[in-house]
Write a structure and sequence with these properties.
Helix content: 10-25%
Largest sheet: 6 strands, antiparallel
Distance between the termini: 52 Å
Strand content: 35-45%
Number of domains: 2
Radius of gyration: 23 Å
Number of helices: 2
Structural class: alpha+beta
Amino acid sequence: MPFIARATDSWIHNNMYRSYSELAIFILGLIILSLFGDLSAEESNVYVDKGACPGEGCEYCALYIAKSEVPVYKEPSVESERVGVIPADDTFISKTGEVHTVPTKFNVHREHDGIKPEDEVFALTYLGEGYYRVYHNGELTRADLGFSPWGGSGGKTCNKPEYCWGQLEKELEFTWWMWVISESSLEGWVIADGSMRQIDNRG
């Protein structure tokens, strides 16, 4: 941890008359920062992609109908306040959304579009048509991973060697949140899942 040594030398030079206990606290803080304060997003628990819409032709300002009761939350989290419920058969309009994804390692089997087997790739948001937002060697970019997390010819992890140039270590875990307004003027965040069906697009 070279930066700790440099930072400590600088602190001693500028604060040479302070107590050793303060110096110890300072060094401990630097160690904690080195261990936890500079984590890259692929090492974090969840990647939040605001405004993202995970699928082919996916966009907001669409009209939905509730197939069953849809819980509505104040914030895009099931731990936030529940502000109401959209009853089955009621309609609502999606205004915007965000996708919360657990970064998942994508193991590269053969080179593709400049991505090599020795590279580190983490899949983030699915963007549609096989494309994902990814971390490639620590840089945020887009890549065609060749499959959809919803399933299809490549499966949910791209597990067919004759078709795929890499494979997810496990199925992508993600939650798609939409901010909606119901026909009864209830506003809030809902999880886009099988409890609803899109009717049309009002964009």
